[in-house]
Structures are given as C-alpha cells and as structure tokens.
Amino acid sequence: MALDKPYLDVPGTTIFDADQSRKGYWLNQFCMSLMKAENRARFKADEDAYLAEWPMTDEQKAAVRARDLNWAMRTGGNIYFLSKLGATDGLSFQQMAGSMTGMTEQQYRDMMIAGGRSPEGNRVVGETGNAQGAASQSDAWKAWEEKAQKELAAQVEQAQAATKNKADGRARITASVYSSHVPAIGAAIDHGKTEEPYWQPLFKGYDFSKQWMKDNTPDVIFLVYNDHATSFDLGVIPTFAIGTAAEFEPADEGYGPRPVPVVKGHPELASHIAQSVIQQDFDLTIVNDLKVDHGLTVPMNLMFGSPAAWPCKVIPFHVNVVQYPVPSGARCFALGQAIRRAIESYDQPLKVQIWGTGGMSHQLQGPRAGLINAEWDNRFLDRLIADPKDLSTMPHIDYVREAGSEGIELVMWLIARGAMSDVAGSGKAPKVAHRFFHVPASNTAVGHLILENQV
Predict the structure, then answer these.
(1) How far apart are CA 1 and CA 396, in angstroms?
(2) pTM of the predicted model, to two decimals?
(3) Catalytic choice (181, 266, 362, 448)
C-alpha cells in the first residue's frame, strides 16, 4: 500500500498499526479474556477446547500453543495483549521480553543490568547492531513456515497470472451520495408500508436513485453516519470512528435487529484509510467489532432496495453528533479531503462512493420537538453543491437554531462533499445527478443528493 510506514525498516520491531490491529483482533481479544480467573482456569484445563471458542486463524492458534510471541506478533498480536497469555503461564514481563530475543533468561537479565540494549546499530535494518537479523523462532514456527512456503509458491503463481488480466491503477471516488437516515423509513420498509399514501411520495423520490445505483454500483461505499446510542454508549463516545472489520451485523435498537443483510466490510482499504488519515493529523478510533444501526442500513435500503445481499462492500465511518462538543463543519470538510487523499493512494483500481447521511432539519426532544425548516434545508443543499467551503464555516449554533437540535447531523454531509474532486482542484464542479426533498418522514425533513465527480 502507498502509505508512509517509516517504521518498517526498524530492526527487530513490530509496530502495532491499523493493519496489525485488524489482523490480530480475535487473537488479542482471546488474550484479553484471560484477565478473568475463570477463563484462565478453563484455558489451562483444555487449551484446544478454549481456543476453539475463538475465531482466530489456525496460525494464530498455533502461535499461542507454541507460546512463540514473535510468531504471535507477526499474526497481529500486540505485546500488551499477549502479556495476558504470559501472565497466565506465570511469566514476568522481563521473561516474556527475553523469550523474543534468542537469549537465555540469564543472558537477557545480564544485558538489562548492564544498561539495556543500545540503539547504536539498531536504528535501521542493515546496520551492525545486536538486534539485526531474523526473529527468534520456535520449532513449531519453523515447521509452519516450511509448510506455508510451499503453499505460498502455488498461490503466488496463481496471483501473478490473475494480475496480468487486472487493470492497473488506484482507487478513485466516483460520486458522493447524501441521504437522511430516518428510523421510521426502515420500519416502513420492514413492515411493507412503502405504498401507503403517507410513505409513497418519499419512496418515489428514490426511484431514480435505485436505477442509478444499478448503473453505477461501486466496489466500496465509505458511509458516514452516526451511531444512535447503539454500539457506543456513554462509556465511550469517539468523535470519529472507522469500522475495519470484515463484516458488521445489524444492531438491535430495542425492536430487534432489522431484517437486512449483514454488511460486508473492506478491511484492507479501511485500515489503509485509517493509517493515512491519522498520519494527516486526524484522530480516528479504529473499531474492529461494530454493529450498525439504522443510520447506516436505512440509506442502504433507499439506494439498493431490499436485496438478499448488499451488492458492494461498505466501510462504516461514525461521527459523534450526539454529545457535545461535536466536530465543526470546517473540521468535517477538511476530514473529507484527507479521506479522498487516503482513498486515492490505495493501489487497487477500486470504484469508491462516499456517502454522507443524517439530517435534514429535525428536533426530537423538548418543547421544540417537530421543528422543520424547509427553506433553510434547501438553501443548505444549494450551498453544499455550489460553495461547500463557505458552508463549512457555519457555526454549530446556526444548525441548532435553524435546523433543530438533531439537524447538526448535517455536518456529516460535509465530509462526503469534502472528498469530491473539485474541492481538491483536480476536477470540474460535480454533476448533480439527482436532487430530492420531502417533508415529513416521521419527525424529519428528508434531503437527498447524488453528485458525480467530473474529473
């Protein structure tokens, strides 16, 4: 991947980055389980039976059985998590660290007493320090490697043949989609009410969109939404969080999970985006276990209908617009630009759409509940299309006063708009493929836009 990872040439060192976190999620979760005495007892009583409860790879389980920490780290383990395994075996941190160096326990202790390992000669691979060379390996790891090498050779041969038939290029954002994500819309779909007089005008406004999606189905959707006290409670509320898992189950929001397909993720691209965006000084929370609520699934229904399986992969991106302080419009607009740079640096020819969801004007609480400001909403759409940079400077209080307390969700649309080519100066103004506005859907004004990049 075209990412700046300068730490890859530091000898004898594995930096736990987004790729490692994704790869080692279940291994590290298994290690965390050993913080409970009853789990430690079960693991000691029958390691194989306990490991069978965890969806780790066969290699990760083999590394655990071998107690080979270098091996476990190669498969995504993090030393702080792996230390729970060492503690279960009664090892000190010094004993665990020593086991990875190829030294005996006494040799490692003597080195530490003498002042520790010197950084001299150990800063870059290829120097002459005492941490250069391959990692210490257990016999079990060596045996695994021999078997894996034979399998890898066959896979490489197949991959090389497939690559010749694959177009070169990088990922690109083809369009941005904007849509409200009203929970009652999901209920109308789930209960067969879409043709009722109340709902029919709203769903008719998405007829064009469904056909457009069939004609322009992307490989991946980067979907910006907000969790509605579903996966994130008041214990942890991240400002920005990216889902890096392989799949995301529909959440139970109190009525049971919606009858929609499991959302398939794109872990490799998601991890790439996380790494790139964080290096651009945006603090993201990386989430490897996430259930998605109506904020994500309702826009999917509106654009795709109700298929047996979603026709493309999705990267969920949560923005906190529930508890103040929430990110400013300017911060969201700049984040969209960082996301575009991240996506365009991914070295696979993927077609990506970025969606901004939520809004438009609505207030769900207090004596002012039911507030709708259709004139303001449509002016917002005008400005989003024609002058998003100026729109991004609008302060939070204007959203609250004019669009209602929950109208602040519209800052998420600025993330999607910031990712378009014209903002980067590398394309013409986007083509407005579709625009729709409707009042009401339950308590909310519904807005919808499809903007196509014109490169």
Answers:
(1) 37
(2) 0.87
(3) 362
